[in-house]
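anyone seen this seq b4? input:
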Amino acid sequence: MDNDVRALREAKGLTQAQLGEAVGVSRQSINSIEKGRYDPSLPLAIAIARYFGKAVEEIFHV
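predicted toks r here
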């Protein structure tokens, strides 16, 4: 699954660690999501989308 997490994170000037802390996961989890090695659970995808003020479908797509 493709995603726009990295672009959104960088646009806000956040580190992976800062985003991870904000949504309750490790920096490594954010790194894996950004690289497409890990698809987040639905609750995590929702938390990330809410953090950026977007719908899940706007961030995570096929």
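The radius of gyration is 10 Å. The longest helix spans residues 42-52. kinda curious what u guys think
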